[in-house]
Design a protein that fits this description.
4-stranded antiparallel sheet, mainly beta, 37% strand, 92 residues, 0% helix
Length: 92
């Protein structure tokens, strides 16, 4: 799968603060080629837990005990290893 497209990289696209209009189910994966199809501007966590993700710089970051709800964040991938949160949706 190609790398995530960043539709917010320029000022010509949608605003980072406007509501998401496209959504996708998060399927955590440790495979390097399983980046999201586009860079989201938010993550919805349906069942609280830890979330391990690849940030925009390619770093792995672990968010401990993320609560249920929408979180404004930009990332490229959610990893299966160390992720215990479930029922996640990305919004762009």
């Amino acid at each position: 799968m190609p790398a995530a497209v960043d539709n917010f990289a320029s000022n010509n696209g949608p605003s980072l603060t406007s509501a998401p209009v496209r959504f996708g189910v998060v399927t955590p994966s440790d495979v390097a080629l399983d980046e999201l199809p586009e860079v989201p501007r938010g993550l919805y966590v349906g069942v609280a837990g830890d979330v391990s993700l690849k940030d925009m710089a390619g770093n792995t970051v672990l968010f401990k005990a993320m609560p249920v709800g929408w979180h404004a964040m930009r990332f490229r991938q959610i990893f299966a290893t160390a992720t215990t949160a479930t029922t996640m949706v990305w919004g762009a």
